[in-house]
Model the fold of this input.
Amino acid sequence: MDKYYRISEAARLLGVCSKTLRCWDSEGKITCRRTLGGHRRISILEIERLSSPLNPSSPSRSEGAIAIYCRVSSHEQKTKGDLDRQISVAQDYCAQHHLPPAYTFSDVGSGLNTRAPHATGGQLAGCDVRGAR
Done:
């Protein structure tokens, strides 16, 4: 028999808000059972499906993409390998947490420049860069 979780427990396990799970249920993106009192229960199999890094159709994966942004302040730091180390550490973190990055951005200077050639080349098109520093 499958184990079922309350919506708040499932949300905590998946790292999403319980309101998100309710919306996904209403939209038919996930399957929930209802108790006699009408409360949602989500099976462990559904949680595993949603949390699988190999499932690109998972609602949690299709709503946004993981992006890595690394920056150094000077060309000297880049030459010393600081930027490459930052990128490597960020990619390792993503791999350890099953978060495959869709984009990797790097910059030298005073921050993310959305007018830079790499940005206008389409890499930033459709990405939310608010909050990037």
Summary: The two ends are 48 Å apart (CA to CA). The chain has two domains: 4-62, 66-123. Residues 64 and 127 are 9 Å apart (CA to CA). The longest helix spans residues 82-96.
